[in-house]
């Protein structure tokens, strides 16, 4: 990707849009009004109009997103004449699971990648990033004339920019990007059957629109996934914020932070389980829920005076080092370094996988810490909360400086974390998530998690005993993220997020 992308992000997205089918509404944000679409099952009868001209949707891949999106689309479009078909590579190990969920060769909803692409009017490319980089040429060659290309990640666009390739001319190109992992996309969709508004928010983008129907089609796709609200971005902006986020506050920084805090509490005299509770349990459980319900400033306001003082010292010690790391990640994503790293790693890892992080000493304390949940929730530790909130705000501020729209900022930096990823980590552990997420996210986390760990250990934690920086606290109190998050929060469900610890 062009290194200047990090500077030109200021003009990446026109956040307004209109629709001939749905009724978008304005959303007041710090940077000006954006346009959003509230979802809901009451909109499902409009889906055939949104998908006008589409009789077959081909979902290519059965990974986390493919598995969820194929089922959500099929369920939302039930009763229409639109068929959802899954396309897999020959011999795919995922075929048995797809069949178990009703996609079979016998009913015409399961086939090879090439035959499904060739028969589909809308082709959703949801295979792994490295596989898409490897197979996109043959996929493009198999597209029927005028077929719509659908993406849920901007990785392919970045890869094409790196290699000098282009998306095929004459095809509409749209993206709908759920702000959560595939398991959450499905679980919350199912929860939405009885709780109106439950779901995972999505961004959408239009890369090419030769026939003028791309916006309505993208909105229909998002509604069919069960998104409570949908906001507009661009493929470039989505790619930048997504890859940076998963290397920072969504996963990489979380892993580095909880390990650093655990070691800090151990050195201070805590036993392993208590240290685990004060670090990992706090971040994934009560702190995540508090941010979801009362916002970032509400977490600080809810502490007693002594706790607020400790939070302030931790926040101001962590903010600048975290911001520097987020900026470094952003520059490397924008310059294409992360894309090249993922593809190079795929070649190396073809001969063997990555060693798990879950074998490190910290995670041996997890079972006993989880068992203690029955006796009551762990209290929010002010030091851990200050470190985490500082890192989250550092990402927010970096995205804002780079020109991302505020709906994207709060979703990629806050809502996705507290309403999707952290609840899943609470059920399964941060280490489990690191060891089982997508290859792209895992590689990024394994690269940047240790950088955050070292930063917290070497720079941040030694400084937490110093007086809080009044200027940084004033900036936090007046940060535009607070009204932006409240505005976005009014469109989010006021329900406890469904988490099934048995979901893999």
TrEMBL record:
Pfam family, one: KARI_N
Cofactor: Mg(2+)
Organism phylogeny: Bacteria, Bacillati, Actinomycetota, Actinomycetes, Kitasatosporales
Chain ranges of the KARI N-terminal Rossmann domain: 37-237
Domain KARI C-terminal knotted: 234-376
Record keywords, A-Z: Amino-acid biosynthesis, Branched-chain amino acid biosynthesis, Isomerase, Magnesium, Metal-binding, Oxidoreductase
Listed InterPro entries: 6-PGluconate_DH-like_C_sf (IPR008927), 6PGD_dom2 (IPR013328), KARI (IPR013023), KARI_C (IPR000506), KARI_N (IPR013116), NAD(P)-bd_dom_sf (IPR036291)
Pathway(s) the chain acts in: Amino-acid biosynthesis; L-isoleucine biosynthesis; L-isoleucine from 2-oxobutanoate: step 2/4; Amino-acid biosynthesis; L-valine biosynthesis; L-valine from pyruvate: step 2/4
BP terms from Gene Ontology: isoleucine biosynthetic process; L-valine biosynthetic process
Name of the protein in its database record: Acetohydroxy-acid isomeroreductase
PANTHER family documented for this protein: KETOL-ACID REDUCTOISOMERASE, MITOCHONDRIAL
Gene3D superfamilies: N-(1-d-carboxylethyl)-l-norvaline Dehydrogenase, domain 2, NAD(P)-binding Rossmann-like Domain
Residues that coordinate or bind Mg(2+) 2: 242
Annotated residues for binding of Mg(2+) 1: 242, 246
């Amino acid at each position: 990707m062009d290194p200047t992308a990090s500077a030109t992000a200021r003009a990446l997205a026109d956040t307004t849009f209109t629709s001939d089918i749905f009724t978008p509404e304005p959303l007041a944000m710090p940077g000006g009004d954006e346009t959003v679409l509230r979802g809901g099952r009451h909109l499902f009868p409009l889906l055939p109009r949104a998908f006008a001209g589409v009789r077959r949707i081909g979902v290519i891949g059965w990974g986390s997103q493919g598995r969820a999106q194929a089922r959500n689309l099929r369920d939302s479009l039930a009763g229409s004449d639109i068929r959802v078909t899954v396309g897999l590579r020959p011999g795919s190990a995922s075929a048995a699971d797809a069949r178990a969920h009703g996609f079979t060769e016998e009913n015409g909803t399961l086939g090879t990648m090439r035959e499904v692409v060739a028969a589909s009017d809308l082709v959703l490319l949801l295979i792994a990033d490295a596989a898409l980089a490897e197979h996109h040429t043959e996929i493009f060659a198999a597209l029927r004339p005028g077929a719509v290309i659908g993406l849920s990640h901007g990785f392919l666009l970045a890869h094409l920019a790196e290699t000098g390739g282009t998306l095929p001319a004459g095809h509409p190109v749209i993206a709908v990007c759920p702000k959560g992992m595939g398991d959450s996309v499905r679980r919350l969709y199912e929860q939405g059957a009885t709780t109106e508004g439950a779901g995972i928010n999505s961004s959408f983008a239009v890369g090419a629109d030769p026939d003028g129907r791309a916006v309505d089609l993208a909105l229909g796709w998002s509604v069919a996934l069960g998104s409570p609200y949908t906001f507009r971005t661009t493929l470039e902006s989505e790619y930048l914020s997504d890859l940076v986020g998963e290397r920072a506050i969504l996963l990489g920084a979380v892993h580095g932070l909880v390990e650093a805090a655990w070691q800090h509490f151990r050195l201070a005299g805590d036993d392993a389980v208590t240290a685990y509770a004060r670090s990992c349990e706090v971040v994934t459980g009560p702190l995540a829920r508090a941010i979801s319900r009362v916002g970032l400033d509400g977490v600080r306001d809810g502490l007693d005076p002594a706790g607020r003082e400790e939070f302030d010292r931790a926040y101001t010690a962590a903010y600048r080092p975290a911001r520097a790391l987020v900026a470094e990640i952003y520059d490397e994503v924008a310059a294409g370094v992360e894309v090249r790293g993922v593809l190079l790693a795929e070649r190396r890892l073809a001969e063997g996988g990555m060693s798990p992080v879950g074998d490190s000493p910290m995670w041996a304390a997890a079972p006993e810490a989880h068992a203690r949940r029955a006796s009551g929730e762990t209290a929010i530790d002010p030091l851990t909360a200050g470190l985490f909130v500082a890192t989250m705000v550092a990402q927010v501020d970096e995205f804002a400086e780079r020109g991302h729209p505020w709906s994207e900022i709060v979703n990629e930096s806050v809502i996705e974390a507290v309403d999707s990823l952290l609840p899943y980590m609470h059920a399964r552990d941060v280490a489990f998530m690191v060891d089982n997420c997508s290859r792209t996210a895992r590689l990024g986390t394994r690269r940047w998690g240790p950088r955050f760990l070292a930063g917290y250990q070497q720079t941040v934690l030694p400084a937490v005993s110093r007086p809080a920086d009044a200027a940084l606290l004033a900036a936090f109190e007046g940060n535009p993220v607070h009204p932006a998050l409240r505005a976005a929060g009014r469109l989010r469900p006021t329900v406890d997020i469904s988490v099934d610890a048995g979901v893999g």
